[in-house]
Amino acid sequence: MSRIGKSPITVPSGVEVTIADQHVVVKGPRGSLDLDVVDDITVRQEGDLLHVERPDDERRNRAMHGLTRSLVNNMVVGVSEGFKKELQIIGVGYRALAKGDSALELQLGYSHSINVKAPDGITFDVPEPTHIIVSGADKQAVGQMAAEIRSLRKPEPYKGKGVRYVGEHVARKAGKAAK
Q: For a FRET experiment, which of 24, 80, 125, 135 has its CA 20 to 30 Å from that of 74?
């Protein structure tokens, strides 16, 4: 049996879970998320625990069992605590400027500034000009938005300039050898 799929999900206080057929809706203080569960997988609620179950040990059902449990758990964690990704900008003249909670203006060494607008449910925080925090309730949307910002100027291997995740290691290359 799936080690991930068989562990129950604890629903914290303040989070409401509604299960109708194959549709799971999770509401909490940070918003509401919903998921359509694959046909063979069932989600049932027992008090403040959620159980994800599969009918048999077919290969597809085993794969979907753990995946569905992880997706539902991420929804519960997202609406109660939220997710965040932190990015740092390295380079002379590279900086970020917040335009409200849902927009950024980035100077990344190009001749023009780049404006980034956040989708619904995602917020940006810029505590300092070289530090961006992307946060929201949906783990996938937060990760996707952070990846899109990073892709605007990926860290280059010679000087390390660009946008990177906090704690990301960039392999550095040696420059030209002097004669």
A: 125
Q: Do both 86 and 157 map to the same domain? A: yes
Instruction: Give the span between the Cα atoms of 5 and 53, in whole angstroms.
Output: 7
Q: Are 103 and 113 in contact (CB under 8 A)?
A: no
Q: Is the pLDDT confidence value at 163 over 70? A: yes
- In the predicted model, what is the mean pLDDT of the chain? 92
Answer yes or no: is pLDDT of 177 > 90.
no
Q: 10 Å Cβ neighbour count for 45?
A: 14
Expressed as residue numbers, the domain containing 28 is 7-79
Number of Cβ within a 10 Å radius of residue 58: 11
Q: Would you say 43 and 37 are in contact if contact means Cβ atoms under 8 Å apart? A: yes
**Could you tell me how many residues make up the chain?**
179
Q: In what order do the strands lie in the sheet with 95-98?
A: 95-98, 103-107, 114-117
Nearest-5° angle of CA 83, CA 84, CA 85? 140
